[in-house]
Amino acid sequence: MFFYLMRHGDKIRIPGNPGLSDLGKSQSKLTAIYLMDKNISAILSSQLARVRETARIISKRLGMEFKEDKRLTERINWGDVPNVSFSEFLKEWEKTDKDRDYKPKFGQSSRETGNKLLEVIKEFEKEKESQNILIVTSGGTITDLLRNIFGDDYLESKRSGFIDGGIKDASITILQANDGNYKLIEFASTKHLKED
Asked: Is 150 helix (H, G, I), strand (E, B) or coil?
């Protein structure tokens, strides 16, 4: 069973819940073309506008519906709480990065975010054997999951600076699942984006 974990496409640079930029829409279309022969049986999305829009573009191309799941939400999102400056948001984000169990003033911890995504994956493992699932979410959510499963040292050995640098927009990480054992097949790859 393979899980295609995709970070949403490039977003409009405003706080809150922005949609995709023109680049993000293009990235989503290119990703949909890449996924056409991957036998995707289900598409899940978080509730953020940029994530839903990415999933909608892909699902339309693949001729299937997508489903929203609130467990795929980013640990904190700038603009969700009124009157929080970007610098205050960044301080909270950095605290959650360094102390993975730190509960921010708004949102949830890094470890909790990763565990919620893992819960979704485990549900699919139980229900649908030998299926390929696309999960579209935020880069931080994917990073939190990978840190929970593989640990920071392993991830840094695969890609130096990953924890601090994150993953690029519209990147795909492929996780192979086998009875609760996970193997990293692709790691934040953007090779499917011709315009990258």
From this structure: helix
The answer to whether the beta carbons of residues 56 and 43 sit under 8 Å apart is no
Answer for the pair 13, 169: CB distance below 8 angstroms, yes or no. Answer: no
Token couple for 156: 């840094």
Q: By three-state DSSP, how is residue 52 classified? A: helix
Q: Answer yes or no: are the C-beta atoms of 26 and 10 closer than 8 Å.
A: no
Tokens at 157, concatenated: 């050995």
Type of residue at 55: A
Q: Which residues pair with 5 in a beta bridge?
A: 135, 173
Q: What is the pTM of this model?
A: 0.94
Q: Is 71 helix (H, G, I), strand (E, B) or coil?
A: helix
Q: How far from the centroid of its chain's Cα atoms is residue 94's Cα?
A: 18
DSSP string, 117-161: HHHHHHHHHHH-TT-EEEEEE-HHHHHHHHHHHH-HHHHHHHSTT
Query: Which amino acid is present at 43?
Result: I
The amino acid occupying position 169 is D
CA distance 19 to 115: 26
pLDDT digits (tens, 9 = 90+) for 55-111: 999 999 999 999 999 999 999 887 777 787 888 888 988 999 999 999 988 889 999
Distance CA 21, CA 177 (A): 33
